[in-house]
Predict the 3D structure of the following.
Amino acid sequence: MTDVVQPRIARGLRDLLPEQMIARQKMIETIRRVYELYGFVPLQTPAVEYLDGLLGSAAGDEASKSIFAVVNPDSNNTSERLGLRFDLTVPLARVIASHPELPTPFRRYQVAPVWRADKPGPGRFREFTQFDLDSVGVESEVADTEILAGMCDTLSALDVGPYKVKFSSRAVLDLLLEFAGIEGRRGPDVFRVLDKLPKIGAEKVRKELTTGYVDESGDPIKGLELSTGQVDLIERFLEIRPDDRRQTIAQLRELFAAVDAAAAQIDVVERISNHLYALGYADDRLALDLSIARGLAYYTGPVFEAELLDAPQFGSVFGGGRYDGLVERFLGRKIPATGASMGVDRLLAALDALGRLDHRKSTANVLVTVLDRSLMDDYVAITFALRRAGIAAELYLSDERIGKQLRYADACDIPVSLLLGSDEHAAGKVTLKDMRMGKARAEKVEDRSEWLEERVEQRQVAREDLVDAVAHMLSVIERRTENG
């Protein structure tokens, strides 16, 4: 007898069961429709990349430390070390450098898993799915505007409830370094801390910028050792938080009046804001928030993120920005690019916590039950007739007691069960059972004998009218579900 291997899963990873996968696939299809409405085209890249392409200034120290290395069985050469991608943007930059024949602007979307050895948390996993949209080869701020509009339209299409998309600019944050007298080389570390503001609060941000602190788990968080005066100036910048984008821009111009080249960078932010106003994206769902930095070091201009207002504990569910220097690492010259990435797993976890997910456990809308093995040809024919009419149907693959078959339909949340016994077969009829209505009535019934007598949750139809009758019953169930 072989040794039994204990079933286990590594920390930060998880299995996705059918109920989760059905909700995920529905979400991905909705996002895909929005992106293709914008004219973005699909792309796929390998999960494994050369480690030297993933490491370095493009990722920043924080992301570099979280990369999973991969054993390359073909080579002991250290220059050929491999790693799992930590996002979809670095692989995109490699694709652009590798395929000069691609037309520009190259506007692509991609949905795929990525891996980071981060500390797991609410909605945060070490393997997770991102859904990206990017425009490469476009310098105009209109491309950034389009990404922001796409973020809003995607969240609206997903019916996530109230949300806020926010944007700022890493170029403006570079001005902050000059304003506060901080060396430019320290910028990525400073921005990484500022990006934590919504998660850890102003007091801990100040501590991490100066002396550091110990977090709730007992882990020491090293400080950046900035001076009190420098942090005071940073806080003056962060205090600019009006609800009106126009007021934010006016206050920013006043604060940076003495900073060289500030006007030009603020002009870019103002043009994006004005484009968004022209498109109907007002301050209630699209805000200018100067504290946004985004954690990755490759951002060079406007940066974006979005959160669900009813689930702020999940943090940003959508984020990105402009990264004009990333392709240069592979090509030797700058190629302008901008984009955003949705965290599919985090958004699903947030919607689940809010009770906004449809927890379907089956893709089938009809279960064809088996009452008489001698009628199996009929059951198979009925099942395929429904499928060929575009109705998802599952055939129960054994002749177990009908009660067990109906419990299976109920457990899998299949809305309609189809019953065909010898009597129905002789009469040329089939019985359709509305499982959801039956369940609802069973939960409320006081007089069971009356309920059994009425049996309003099921009806007999002629065999030749089966497809139309099933389609009608499903449409009634759908309307009833939508109306609560």
The mean pLDDT is 90. The longest strand covers residues 106-115. The chain is about 40% helix and 20% strand. Residues 371 and 401 are 8 Å apart (CA to CA).
